[in-house]
Amino acid sequence: MSVIEVHELHKAYGETVAADAVSLTVEDGEIFGILGPNGAGKTTTVECLIGLRRPDRGRIRVLGLDPRRDGRALREQIGVQLQESRLPDALRVGEALELYAHLYEAPADPDRLLTDLGLTERATTAFGNLSGGEQQRLSIALALVGDPRVAILDELTTGLDPNARRETWHLIEQVRASGVTVVLVTHFMDEAERLCDRLAIIDRGRVVATDTPAALIGGVETSAQLRLRTVPPIEASALADLAEVHAVATEGEELVIRGDGDVLHAIATRVRALGAVTVSARLGQATLEDAFLALTGRDHAPEELRADAAGEVSP
Ligand SMILES: Nc1ncnc2c1ncn2[C@@H]1O[C@H](COP(=O)(O)OP(=O)(O)OP(=O)(O)O)[C@@H](O)[C@H]1O
């Protein structure tokens, strides 16, 4: 069953087209990712979903409701954590939950939420004294306090250290396991690959693909990635003209080369011709970043989309 249906959503701010014929469906019980670089139109799409913005055109149904017309009924059934939502520094964790619980007719039990989200010992701590990870856990708790069927979480792990990110991912999986459908807005490739059952890649206001991470990555299998180290080191520009090479980047002492066809042979021949010796050559597997590049036709991913944008994280 689809819990969210968006058909040809269009939204512009003056000359800027933020959402250009965006269509997507979110199925009951899944973690659905909306992945794209800054400015791609993710937040605009989500704000239309929850009735905060009026689309210029298009049809949206969330749990069968029209977010603009049936906003009140919808807000009883969805939980939202919006980007950079902050609480007053002096507000204590338990007080915040009680306060938010009063906004709903049939709220979840705040004590159970504190337990589920590992915040029981912080119940009397003021928001301003929580760590970044704890603040994010509280914002998940607040998104769940109405006992929603759908939780929409926008840029949940931005600014968190790798440990706190992993903890947050685990919590999101628990939320899904409890039967809540999760829409996760993110610009982190690794997060989308690790957590989402399916995802829509958005670029410049358009959905360029929707599928499971594995299927999106599978679609670019023919593109090989090689990490190469030589002595003496050779410049990226010394390989860039090879027909089999699509892109070369320098990462530390390694060259990261993407290409196809007989790219290994072409590189080996060039390395020898340059009088260099290969110290290590590792073939990498395609990632969501490769899928993004293939689907958007860009030759490099925007900096903030890379997996390590918030530090080195391995799932
Ligand atoms: N209120 C607004 N007025 C004018 N332009 C806006 C407004 N909100 C967003 N935009 C523009 O619309 C485009 C899409 O923005 P949006 O915030 O939806 O993207 P995003 O993918 O969520 O990006 P980010 O990850 O940076 O939040 C951007 O070019 C942005 O500058």
Automatic annotation (TrEMBL):
<dbReference type="GO" id="GO:0046677">
    <property type="term" value="P:response to antibiotic"/>
</dbReference>
<dbReference type="InterPro" id="IPR050763">
    <property type="entry name" value="ABC_transporter_ATP-binding"/>
</dbReference>
<dbReference type="GO" id="GO:0005524">
    <property type="term" value="F:ATP binding"/>
</dbReference>
<keyword id="KW-0067">ATP-binding</keyword>
<dbReference type="GO" id="GO:0005886">
    <property type="term" value="C:plasma membrane"/>
</dbReference>
<keyword id="KW-1278">Translocase</keyword>
<keyword id="KW-0813">Transport</keyword>
<dbReference type="InterPro" id="IPR027417">
    <property type="entry name" value="P-loop_NTPase"/>
</dbReference>
<keyword id="KW-0547">Nucleotide-binding</keyword>
<keyword id="KW-1003">Cell membrane</keyword>
<dbReference type="InterPro" id="IPR003439">
    <property type="entry name" value="ABC_transporter-like_ATP-bd"/>
</dbReference>
<feature type="domain" description="ABC transporter">
    <location>
        <begin position="4"/>
        <end position="229"/>
    </location>
</feature>
<dbReference type="InterPro" id="IPR003593">
    <property type="entry name" value="AAA+_ATPase"/>
</dbReference>
<dbReference type="InterPro" id="IPR017871">
    <property type="entry name" value="ABC_transporter-like_CS"/>
</dbReference>
<keyword id="KW-0472">Membrane</keyword>
<protein>
    <submittedName>
        <fullName>ABC transporter ATP-binding protein</fullName>
    </submittedName>
</protein>
<dbReference type="Pfam" id="PF00005">
    <property type="entry name" value="ABC_tran"/>
</dbReference>
<keyword id="KW-0046">Antibiotic resistance</keyword>
<dbReference type="GO" id="GO:0016887">
    <property type="term" value="F:ATP hydrolysis activity"/>
</dbReference>
